[in-house]
Amino acid sequence: MTRPITHVAAGVLVRDDGEFLLGSRPEGKPYAGYWEFPGGKLEPGESALAALKRELNEEMGIEVVTAYPWLTQEFIYPHATVRLHFFQVTRWKGEIQPQEGQQFVWQRPGMLTVAPMLPANTPILRGLELPNEMAISNVAELGESEYMRRLARRLTGGLRWLMLREPHLERDDFALLAEKVLALAKPFGVRVIINRDPELARQLGAAGVHLRSPQLMALQERPEGLDWVGASTHGGPELAHAARLGLDYAFLGTLQPTPSHPDGDTLGWGGFARIVSHGYTLPVYAIGGLSLGDLPAARQHGGHGVALLRAAWNA
């Protein structure tokens, strides 16, 4: 007999400094003492967002001002099957005060200091390490010298992640460029993702690999030996396959016309939102003709952030 699914809204409160909030489960509840993202069950006829606002007010006495739909996670516990609808909450009113005997702690991505985590919440921690902007290299248009100059400026300005993608270069030339970029980025702790070449990513000690959509669809399992694996997708089937393989993130596009493809097919924000709204377990970046100014729109439509090519290197 199939169990009914309990729908839960969960809030990932994120401060401007990047720290996020965890709460402990109070005595008397299943998994008492475990840590989780605060939230609670949807009431009949209630939307996930409405439930989130109600639960966070009841649990910690705050009023949610800005919340972005984010990831969906389904988990089977011994006592219930739950489907969690996660939101990133970036603005709220009021001081956080425990209302149900729980504890709250602020944590930094990738540096958890409390345990144990409630199992359904653990995969969400991975997504919190990802930036809202994924910058994509553009040596092809800028030239190597100018690109490296702009990269140095972005590194000193706080760039966190970079995807190195230069399909015009032969593999040996690309490897030489990658070595230079990795050497420049290393002192800043920037994670560099190599496009389409898992073997080269492993060889150079890069943070991971980003797969082209045909590569993604040809895979039956996640590439081994790489910390981070992402992929380009253009629709629901590819995005679902990336999720099944346990990839860490995906690009979804093209959102808007681009200089290189001015007449190509585009999703628009409506098409992007329709695909992402099916609920996926991995963060999704909007890509195609965007700038950092499109980040709020991407998040409002269910995206994790924006992937930028030309706009990442504009003055």
From TrEMBL:
Molecular function in Gene Ontology: hydrolase activity
Catalysed reactions listed for this entry: 8-oxo-GTP + H2O = 8-oxo-GMP + diphosphate + H(+); 8-oxo-dGTP + H2O = 8-oxo-dGMP + diphosphate + H(+)
Cofactor(s) for this UniProt protein: Mg(2+)
EC number assigned by the record: 3.6.1.55
A Pfam family this chain is assigned to: TMP-TENI
Assigned keywords, A-Z: DNA damage, DNA repair, DNA replication, Hydrolase, Magnesium, Metal-binding, Mutator protein
Signal peptide feature range: none
Keyword DNA damage: yes
Gene3D superfamilies the UniProt entry points to: Aldolase class I, Nucleoside Triphosphate Pyrophosphohydrolase
Coiled-coil regions listed: none
EC top class named in words: hydrolase
Family indicated by similarity: Belongs to the Nudix hydrolase family.
Protein name: 8-oxo-dGTP diphosphatase
Species annotation: Parachitinimonas caeni
